[in-house]
UniProtKB/TrEMBL annotation:
Family designation: Belongs to the TonB-dependent receptor family.
Compartments, as annotated in UniProt: Cell outer membrane
Protein name (Swiss-Prot/TrEMBL): TonB-dependent receptor
Organism of origin: Sphingosinicella xenopeptidilytica
Keyword Membrane: yes
Lineage, highest ranks first: Bacteria, Pseudomonadati, Pseudomonadota, Alphaproteobacteria, Sphingomonadales
Keywords of this entry: Cell outer membrane, Ion transport, Iron, Iron transport, Membrane, Receptor, Signal, TonB box, Transmembrane, Transmembrane beta strand, Transport
TonB-dependent receptor plug domain segment(s): 44-155
Its membrane topology: Multi-pass membrane protein
Domain TonB-dependent receptor-like beta-barrel: 251-717
SUPFAM superfamilies linked: Porins
Signal peptide extent: 1-25
Length: 754
């Protein structure tokens, strides 16, 4: 089936789904979905904000494993996909390097990535396994008042199922095979045990996944280099000493092992020509404690967490090092100008230096420790006046060791003991305190007004040193130095909603989002480039939420405009070796979102979503078009990695086969439009990421009460290459490095509840 035909079919089906109302991200059961996005219980369709709730049943039925699989289910949700542990969450096109633009929460705990060498904590969001989940809530638009920094584009909340006072157990196992690769196996299990009846219960989950690779390294002659291994689990304890007090304690563990899933476009589909192996190790340990006490109409909630993350990556720099092996390159580094080339002994010694590092890689080791605490007091939502007030504290410390080391030219493996060409050390500390409040009042039984404010203060302290320099990459030995920055401010939210009828809700909102500024960790960077300021935005939107046909049809839509000021972007030093953050002008994003669901007959549910984003700069960035900033954008340039059009469509049908047995059919498909990898399309390192469609299919037999089920599934049904990320830079020497959706995978899934 041709791509053109698939595209036409998909868009026609999505349009039909939109007309019929099939466009939301949850299973259409007709039951009310209760969410806690406003820090209290509310009905999804009565909550006057742009929010999608993906239920645990939908997650299980569609085969979703982590937050990166949710983009097909939620409008305007996307990911800049650098592979496992290297993904950036994006909502409504607010895409930029630096601190996260989307707040990601696991239960009550906000999580963030590590800074890396380029100060880019938002590019490595932790992805814990989505098994035994109650629901995922995706709040679109700034959520600065209740959720703070990192929520300037929106907030993604994963709510896991909590321990109950009844014994329960479940398993979910799959065997599959991937085209161009081999066999895959995964298994997840859960057991819930009451310890003290009605007082104390435990819920434990565990998972293991091994996926064979499908990328071959043609240079090192190693097949299936991107084999993946994951394992981990959760241990949850719930204590209810009294009817009014609930205490939840949790431990989350996630381990990830793989090689880079990138391949080189010029080397052919699923082929890498990297000169070194590029393994990745990611260890996450998260502890949390939450207590809630109901005083009768007022609930006091205290939540605290500690997270430790150790991550190690390898990035091949061999070709960049080899590119310096010229007489002009020697002149530029030793004589101060390429116009004064080296000769004789000077050139011979320089070539020997390059040859000694000709197969090498960056080998950053990062350790993060993060503490968070929140105390809030909320009304219980029963009266016309509802409110939340609270305080928040976080303290994040990251240590980075970033050496360039030699690798074996035959195997590509890092050589031990390490042969270090250059190295630098960075210690980065970010502390935040905030006070927030939000009040909502029902002026009439149909009109509601809401206002919120958050005061915040950030303190960032950095120290670092370069203990061994390298003339090849421009790294100069630097003694221990210190840089500090701090900032405070406020963010506001105003919302008005009106129930036109009992089943039609109109709302309008103006809300502010923000991210802290800071200082770059590139040791020796020009003083004027070291600090960067916060960026902020205002979001203006209006929307409708409708429920019709005796709750068989829901249809929600909204339009919005976002004005983004002082946006932070990632740029590089002139030699292309070091990345750092800078402020670069303003942007505007205008968009439209549609989602809905339809249950035309018993057993059949159809859902879908679509979004249109026009995300562009509204002014020239500093030094745009010059040799200093050749990739800086001009007024009208699109924001990188933001497709104009995305859409998702799913259909599920369950019907009776025999006494106590049901048949099961489900189809999920999504379309992602094209985008650019940088602001300037004509820039030598800018790449275009083509649009793609991916469809998944699942057919099976299940026990009528869902005690067990057996399913055959096909992911990436049409085996679309589906490139999700495409980049190039000086390190890659103009080669194009891409990531893509895994090729067609066919498998068998068994799950059971006991």
């Amino acid at each position: 089936m041709s791509k053109t035909f698939r595209m036409s079919f998909f868009l026609a089906a999505t349009a039909l789904a939109g007309v019929s109302g099939a466009a939301v991200a949850q299973e259409a059961t007709g039951d009310e979905i209760i969410i806690t996005a406003l820090k209290r219980d509310t009905n999804l369709q009565d909550t006057p904000i742009s929010i999608s709730a993906v239920t645990g049943d939908t997650i299980a039925n569609s085969g979703v494993q982590s937050i990166s699989d949710l983009n097909a289910s939620v409008p305007s949700l996307s990911f800049v996909d650098g592979g496992p542990s290297q993904r950036r969450v994006v909502i409504r096109g607010i895409q930029a390097a630096g601190e996260p633009t989307v707040g990601t929460y696991y239960d009550e705990t906000p999580v963030t990535g590590v800074i890396g060498a380029g100060n880019d904590a938002g590019g490595s969001t932790p992805e814990l396994r989505l098994f035994d989940v109650e629901r995922v809530e995706v709040l679109r638009g700034p959520q600065g008042t209740l959720y703070g920094s990192g929520s300037m584009g929106g907030t993604l909340r994963v709510i896991y199922k909590k321990p109950t006072n009844e014994f329960d157990a479940a398993i979910d196992t799959s065997l599959s095979a991937t085209k161009h690769g081999g066999a895959n196996f995964e298994a997840s299990g859960m057991v819930n045990v009451p310890i003290v009846q009605d007082k104390l219960a435990m819920r434990a989950t565990g998972f293991y996944r091994k996926a064979d690779g499908y990328i071959d390294n043609t240079t090192l002659r190693i097949k299936d280099i991107n084999e993946q291994k994951y394992y981990g689990g959760r241990l949850l304890l719930r204590a209810t000493p009294t009817d009014d007090l609930t205490i939840d304690a949790a431990y989350y563990m996630n381990r990830s092992r793989t090689d880079t899933p990138s391949w080189t476009l010029e080397a052919g589909k699923n082929n890498s020509d990297a000169l070194t192996r590029q393994p990745m190790r990611d260890d996450v340990d998260l502890f949390s404690l939450t207590a809630a006490y109901d005083f009768g109409g007022v609930v006091l909630t205290a939540a605290g967490s500690y997270m430790e993350r150790d991550i190690s990556t390898v990035s091949d720099v061999s070709r960049f090092i080899r590119s310096t092996r010229t007489a002009a390159g020697c002149g530029a580094r030793l004589n101060g100008s390429a116009a004064i080339p080296c000769a004789g002994t000077q050139l011979t010694d320089y070539y020997a230096l390059v040859d000694s590092q000709s197969t090498s890689a960056l080998f950053p080791q990062q350790n993060m420790e993060a503490w968070t605490a929140e105390l809030r007091l909320s009304s219980d939502g029963t009266g016309p006046l509802n409110w939340t007030i609270g305080g928040f504290f976080s303290d994040r410390d990251i240590h980075v060791e970033n050496p360039q080391v030699n690798a074996d030219p035959v195997t590509g493996a890092i050589i031990y003991p390490l042969q270090i060409a250059t190295t630098r050390y960075i210690n980065d500390s970010l502390r935040q305190v905030a006070a927030f409040g939000e009040v909502s009042y029902d002026v009439t039984d149909r009109l509601n007004l809401t206002a919120g404010v958050r005061y915040f203060r950030y303190d960032k302290d950095i120290n670092g040193e370069t203990t061994k320099g390298s003339i090849l990459v421009g790294a100069v030995v630097r003694p221990l130095s210190f840089v500090s920055s701090n900032e405070d401010g406020t963010a506001f939210k105003f919302n008005a909603s009106y129930k036109i009828t009992d089943n039609v809700l109109f709302y309008a909102e103006a809300s502010q989002g923000f991210r802290p500024g800071g200082a770059n960790q590139v040791i020796g960077l020009a003083q004027e480039l070291t600090p960067y300021t916060s960026d902020s935005l205002w979001n203006y939107e209006a929307g409708l939420k409708t429920t019709m046909l005796d709750r068989k049809l829901t249809l929600n839509m909204d339009v919005f405009q976002i004005d983004w000021s002082d946006m932070q972007i990632s740029t590089r030093t002139p030699n292309g070796a070091f990345a750092y953050i800078g402020n670069a002008g303003s942007a505007r994003i205008r968009g439209f979102e549609l989602e809905g669901s339809l249950r035309p007959i018993d057993g059949l549910s159809i859902s879908g979503n679509l979004a249109y984003l026009d995300a562009k700069l509204t002014e020239d960035q500093p030094n745009a078009g010059t040799a200093v900033a050749p990739a800086a954008g001009f007024d009208g340039d699109r924001i990188p990695f933001v497709p104009k059009f995305t859409a998702g469509l799913s259909a599920q049908y369950v019907w009776g086969l025999a006494e106590g047995l049901n048949g099961f059919f489900r189809m999920d498909a999504n379309h992602v439009g094209g985008s650019w990898s940088d602001f300037r399309p004509a820039y030598v390192f800018t790449r275009y990421i083509d649009d793609y469609e991916v469809a998944n299919l699942r057919v099976g037999v299940e026990e009528a009460d869902n005690a067990w089920g057996v399913y055959v599934f096909v992911n990436n049904l049409f085996d679309d290459t589906a490139i999700t990320r495409s980049t190039s830079n000086a390190i890659a020497q103009n080669r194009t490095l891409v990531n893509n959706v895994a090729p067609r995978t066919v498998g068998l899934n068994f799950r059971a509840n006991f």
